[in-house]
Write a structure and sequence with these properties.
This protein has about 260 residues and is α/β, with parallel strands linked by helices. It has two domains: about 5-200, 2-enoyl-CoA Hydratase, Chain A, domain 1 (Alpha-Beta Complex); about 205-250. Helix content is about 45%, strand content about 15%. The chain contains ten helices and ten strands. The strands form two sheets. It has a six-stranded mixed β-sheet, sandwiched between helices. A four-stranded mixed β-sheet has the order 4-6-8-9. Helix 1 (about 30-45) runs parallel beside helix 2 (about 80-95) and helix 4 (about 145-155) packs across helix 5.
């Protein structure tokens, strides 16, 4: 992965930790940070030794969305569709298609694309002080980074429209109550709990976990019959895996399994 100070990457115990690192800009996206973060997820997709990803932010924010200084209309009318197609959409597709657990630890404000990227991750925890803001309405834009897709599916049309049209901040605990995220935790426990979860998942049967992720995501558009067929096909593959053999052997011999993600 190309080195960049805008995203800090560390690897330990099968977990690739990616930390957005523009704290003076509330980790708002510029092009360099986009490319560095995408490179991190591409590395996770490519390397078998990486079995889970932990995404968080440095400083007092998770991510404030797009750095508007990079897309200032007074300096020339920007093509925001090109920005989305070139940077945001490839990232969202990577997160969703990566058949390894993606854990997100929201350590502060998550606004605009920052909020919707957090919602796209597989398991999202947030500090109790964190806030989620669909900030697009404040500047005349439309929610992107999958926001118009994920919000109504997670919380229903009425709440999705209200959040998107009013740009009202949503507290972490309410986000958890509504089902937008997995859990709100005390600020001081956030990174420790998120890292422990990522490490536990990385040590698990990640082949099966990845297929579980694929199946749950497919359910949003599949019919029941199509989903039943998908479950059959994925279970056939899982049942032939070394992880399944190891899991059954460990269960029968009452020992801790040693999964390889294969």
């Amino acid at each position: 992965m190309q080195a960049s100070s805008t995203v800090l990457a560390t690897e330990a115990e099968g977990v690739l930790s990616l930390t957005l690192n523009r704290p003076d800009k509330l980790n708002a996206f510029n092009e360099e940070m986009h490319l560095a973060l995408r490179a991190g997820f591409e590395r996770a997709q490519r390397e078998d030794g990486i079995r889970a990803v932990l995404l968080t932010g440095a400083g007092r924010a998770f991510c404030a969305g797009q750095d508007l200084g990079d897309r200032d209309p007074s300096k020339g009318v920007p093509d925001l569709g090109h920005t989305i197609e070139t940077y945001y959409n490839p990232l969202l597709r990577l997160i969703r298609s990566l058949e390894k657990p993606v854990i997100c630890a929201v350590n502060g404000v998550a606004a605009g694309a920052g909020a919707n990227i957090a919602f796209a991750c597989d398991i999202t925890l947030a500090a109790r002080s964190a806030r989620f803001i669909q900030a697009f309405a404040k500047i005349g834009l439309v929610p992107d980074s999958g926001g118009t897709w994920s919000l109504p599916r997670l919380i229903g049309e009425a709440r999705a429209k209200a959040l998107a049209l009013t740009a009202e901040p949503l507290a972490a605990e309410k986000a958890a109550d509504w089902g937008l995220i997995w859990r709100a935790v005390d600020d001081e426990n956030l990174i420790g709990e998120a890292r422990a979860l990522a490490t536990t998942l990385a040590a698990g049967p990640t082949l099966g976990l990845g297929m579980t992720k694929r199946a749950i995501q497919a359910a949003a558009t599949n019919s029941l019959d199509a989903q039943l067929d998908l479950e059959r096909d994925l279970q056939r593959l899982a049942g032939r895996s070394a992880d399944y053999a190891e899991g059954v052997s460990a269960f029968l011999t009452k020992r801790k399994p040693e999964f390889k993600g294969k």
